[in-house]
Amino acid sequence: MSNLAHQVERKTNHVQNPQPQPNVVRRKRSKITKGEKVLWTIAAMMLAAASIFMISNYAEMYTVNKEIQVMEQNIDKQSKQVDDLTLKKSELSEPLRIINFAEQKLGMKFDDKNIKVVNN
User: Fold this and answer.
1) Rounded to two decimals, what is the model's pTM?
2) Containing H/E element for 114?
3) How far apart are CA 4 and CA 56, in angstroms?
4) Tens digit of pLDDT for each residue in 39-55?
5) C-alpha dihedral, 111 to 112 to 115 to 120, nearest 10°
């Protein structure tokens, strides 16, 4: 009997060998769909465009502010020159200075009888 049991065991071992199954290739689906990829790409492009726009505006504002400061410095210089020239004009147009200049440099004499007043 042992011989018979041994043969059955062999047969069962022989039958239990699995046959190789054909390899089935399964595609793994990504968790992000094509539509979401498109939306994220568009959002990233819009963010980049907005960033570039803001940076260019800040650069332009910096340039304009620098030009304004240069103009203000020029205006300050010009106003100082105008003030200096106004002061010099008032010093040069003093009547006593003109009389002294006329008497000393030009040899003129001040005579009240020859003065004529003209009204506009």
Assistant:
1) 0.51
2) none
3) 93
4) 999 999 999 999 999 99
5) 150
